Every structure is written in structure tokens, then in C-alpha cells.
Amino acid sequence: MKKLTIISSVILSSLLILTGCGSNSSKKSNVTSKVKVVKQSSSKKSQKDVAKKKSGSLWNNDKDSHLEDFMKQWGEVMNQTYTKYDGTNNIQTASGMNYPQDFNSATVNGQNVSMAWDKKGTGKNDYNVVAIYNYNKSSSSSITYAFTLADGEPIVLVNEGSGNNWSETKNKSLRENFVNIFDGKATHVEKPKASSSSSAKSSTKATEDLGEGRGGYVTTPEAMRGTWYSKGEDGMKKLVISEHEITLISADGETNHAVLYKRTKDTPSDVSESERQSKEEWRSAGNIGTNGISMRGWYQLQGGGEHFFTHEEEINGQKVPLVLYGFGANDLTDYVYYPSEDLADQQSDAKYDDINYKF
Predict the structure, then answer these.
(1) Alpha-carbon distance 73 to 69, whole Å?
(2) Is 235 exposed, middle or buried (CB count within 10 Å of its CB: 0-12, 13-18, 19+)?
(3) Residue-wise pLDDT tens digits, 227-259
(4) Is residue 48 pLDDT above 70, yes or no?
(5) Does position 169 have pLDDT exceeding 80, yes or no?
(6) pLDDT above 60 (res 331)
């Protein structure tokens, strides 16, 4: 009996020791996993928050100098000379605006926003402007870029109209390089190769000649680009304009897509139906001043074609950008397009004194 009792005690003690070891091992495992979770969570802090915590700003003098160098190079490529806001004296544009002073009445895509100069980019505005560059195209027209931080994100706004409405630029180089500058990365500007005047002409021709009488694309005014809406008796129509293309979408969904080309050869009169259909989306187009585009069918011989103009109206106390559309041999307006469906619906019966309507 004594032997059995001793053996039982030894077995019981061994089990207790093993159980204790297992318990300690389990606790150690739990602690380790918690540490891992904490480390993983802390690593998810954004670079923006870390940068802001260290410097108290999202924009600094180094980034500003980098942007200034880029804009000089980019302006040379675009054959445009930009004036930078010096932080003290308002930039006076040829269009009649004073920035940053007039940011207090600015709109973006026709919508009311808070937009203001903010050197560090950390303000509570919808758009904190950290840099302003302006180019006067003529005595009455200008292109102004506002480099902004919206909720910490770099966004380039442009104003190319006669009023104070802004939109996000469609220029890929500006968008991508501003992001690069904000992130501390290198910028890249495509510079034209140095060459003699004769070889430059040859290079330009090779670049622009797309064949079949197309001497390159026609570029729409930047202020015209985007999606626009017009409400009529037949329902809501849509107009989509990009850099070289225009798409009209009827209320019942019928789509009329156009690619804008410069025509370099006379329009032939004898064209087969299959040939016409193959060029159905091609348009012979041209700019009308600085704020308009006209286009005709590629093989169209008669009729005035279609035309589009940027326009601005004061609606409910705010200046709103519009696109006027018409077809025929004159510049009369058939439809007025608005920057949003809601606005198009609200203003469906509106008539403006400074617009020449066809009907």
C-alpha cells in the first residue's frame, strides 16, 4: 500500500508540474501575440500624420522651391510664362481677379467651397492653397493654377474662365508632378529636343500628322472639360467633354461620340457609305476664340455643324459655369448645360438675357 501511495504521489506531482508549464507557455504566447498586434497597428500611421507631427505643416520651403523649379521648366515646354504669388502682393490676372484675395468668393465646379491661402497646408478649408501661378494669355484672358491640399491630399485647381469658378486640372503632368513634389519624389518634364528650325518643323509634322487628312487633334478649352447636364421636355441630357473628345448622350441614352481632328485636306464629295461609317466618330474641328469649339462631320459638305461655348451665369447669388450648345449655321444656343443634375433640374425653365437662344 505504501508503495502504491508513493507512486501515486509522484505521478500527481508530475502532472501538476506539466500543467503549470503548459499554463505559463500559454500566457507567454498570448503576450507575444498582443505585442505583435500593437506593433502592426502603430505601423499603419500615415506618412502625412508623421510628417505633420514632426514639422507642424504639410508644405514647406523645400517643396515650394521644388514646385517653382518645376513650373519654370513646365512653362518653357508649354511656351507660357507663369507668375508666382510671392506671399504678400495679390496676383492680378488679366481676367480681372485678385488672388488670394478673391478666394473668399470662389466656387469649384459651380459649388460653394471654402478656399484660402494657407502656407503650411494644414488649415480647415476645403482647399488650402499653398501656391498660386498665373499666366496672362492676352490683355483679357488668363490661366491660373492653385496648388492645394484638400484634407491632406494634393489637388491642382485651374481657372481659365472670366469669373471665379475653378475645376481640377486635367493636365496629367501637373497632377502627377505635384503629387511627386508633395511626396518628396523627383519630377519629370518632357523637354523638346534641340534642333534646327527645319528639322523642328519636320519633327512637328511627324508628330501631328495622323494620316488620312488629320493634322493632329483639336484641344478643347480646359474650363469646358467635364460632365454637364441639360434638362428639357424629353428628359435629362448629358454632355461629356475631355481634352480631344466630345460625347453627347440623349435623354433616352443614345450616344453620339466625336473625336476632334484638324483637317488638312479638302473634303471629298464622292465617298462611299462604308467609308462614311468607318469615320462616323471623326470630326473636323476648330477652336472659336479661347472659349469655344466648333465641329462638323468628317465628310460633311453642307450645314453649319455644331458649336460649344463656355459661359457663366449668376444663379442664386453664385457664379456658375455653363456650356452652351447649338447646331446650324449660326452661333445661337439650343441647349444650356449645367455642372450638376440638380442644377439642371432646378434651372430647366430658366432663360438668361445674355444668351442668344434659337427658340
Answers:
(1) 7
(2) exposed
(3) 899 999 999 999 989 889 999 999 988 889 999
(4) no
(5) yes
(6) yes
Set of cell numbers at residue 203:
519633327
CA 299 to chain centre: 33
pLDDT, tens digit, 9 for 90 and up, residues 120-148: 999 999 999 999 999 988 777 889 999 99
Please give the Cα distance from 50 to 52 (Å, whole number). 5
Give the Å distances, CA to CA, from 357 to 189, 353, 354.
44, 9, 9
Nearest to 306 by CA among 295, 298, 297: 295
Instruction: Round to whole Å and give the CA distance between 144 and 90.
Output: 13
pLDDT tens string 184-214: 888 887 654 444 443 344 333 323 567 888 8
DSSP track, 132-162: EEEEE-SSS-EEEEEEEEETTEEEEEEE-SS
SS3 131: strand
Q: How far apart are CA 320 and CA 313, in angstroms?
A: 5
Cell output for 151:
484634407
Contacts of 1 (CB under 8 A, 6+ apart): none
SS3 of 264, please?
A: coil
Grid cell for residue 242: 475631355
Residue 304: all three cell numbers together: 453649319
pTM listed for this prediction: 0.47
Distances (CA, A) of 18 to 12, 13, 23, 154: 10, 9, 9, 60
